[in-house]
Amino acid sequence: MSVLPPARSSVTAPHPAPALKPAQGRRFAAARTIMALILREMSTRYGRTPGGYIWSIFEPLAAILFLSVGFSLVMRSPSLGTSFLLFYATGYMPFHLYQSLAGSIAAAIRFSRPLLQYPAVTWLDSVIARFLLNSLTGILVTTLLLAGIIAAIDAHTTLNLPPIVEAIGMAMLLGAGVGTVNCAISGLFPIWEVIWSVLTRPLFIASGIFFLYDTMPPLAQKVLWYNPLVHIVGRMRSGFYPTYTAPYVEPVYVLSVSLILLATGLLLLGRYHRDILNL
């Protein structure tokens, strides 16, 4: 008597779901961590203040108004155009974007110190989160203020977008470079934060916000040319004033300084971030 082989089941076993590769999993985890840090900072910085994001618009607007009113009392017209508001806004906003980024990134580890004790959160996540949040906020505030000023003064301005975008990008990169270096140095030597504040206080005057680089004496031009913010402000204004070419602007110089600072800051943080956390 022959034994028949067992019948094959027509039901096939389900295929296991493809597992994420380790690199993919790390990327997704880093993205979730950065987003969580951004939401935490938004709620901490803007959520506890009445008005929230409105203050991030009123603060630079108030500074521009004070500058415009003050200088209009002693000058008949600005160095470019006929509007004090537009002249000082095109100088102040890229400076404000740089200053905001440099200051917030410099405090990234100190702000996120409790969270950095967890293995899932790294110092790089904290730096990237602060860079993204402050960059997006700065771009939004700059766009709203400049568009509002142009509409308010009814200026028939012919905008040249490439120089404007270039100036904003250079301000962001310079802020990231200065911020990462200061984050490492001030983490190792807390007194550096006070020293840097004193050393850079003249930057508000020496960055071309109140005047044009072209109108300065030759000796002042030779010194101020090495200030990257002078190039950024000049490039920004060339996008709003068609007759202003700003021939002294060298984007390669600004990019070189910014990238050297950024690389130095990242190397220092990668080497000494544990020492900073343990201080």
Structure description:
This protein has helices at 22-45, 54-72, 84-106, 108-111, 123-153, 161-188, 191-199, 203-206, 218-224, 228-238, 251-278. It is mainly α and 279 residues long. The model has no long low-confidence stretch (mean pLDDT 83). The protein is built from eleven helices and no strands. Helix content is 67%, strand content 0%.
Low confidence ranges? none
Q: Compute the number of helices.
A: 11
Shape estimate: globular
- Percentage beta strand: under 5%
Largest sheet properties: none
Report the strand count. 0
Helix and strand succession?
A: HHHHHHHHHHH
Distance between the amino and carboxyl termini: 85 Å
User: Over all CA atoms, what is the radius of gyration?
Assistant: 25 Å
Percentage of residues in helical conformation: 55-70%
Which structural class do the helices and strands define?
mainly alpha
Mean pLDDT: 83
Quick structural overview:
This protein is mainly alpha-helical.
Keywords:
279 residues; 11 helices
Secondary structure blueprint with pairings:
Elements (H helix, E strand, L loop, with lengths): L21 H24 L8 H19 L11 H23 L1 H4 L11 H31 L7 H28 L2 H9 L3 H4 L11 H7 L3 H11 L12 H28 L1
Helix pairs in contact: 1-5, 2-3, 3-5, 3-6, 3-10, 5-6, 6-10, 6-11, 10-11
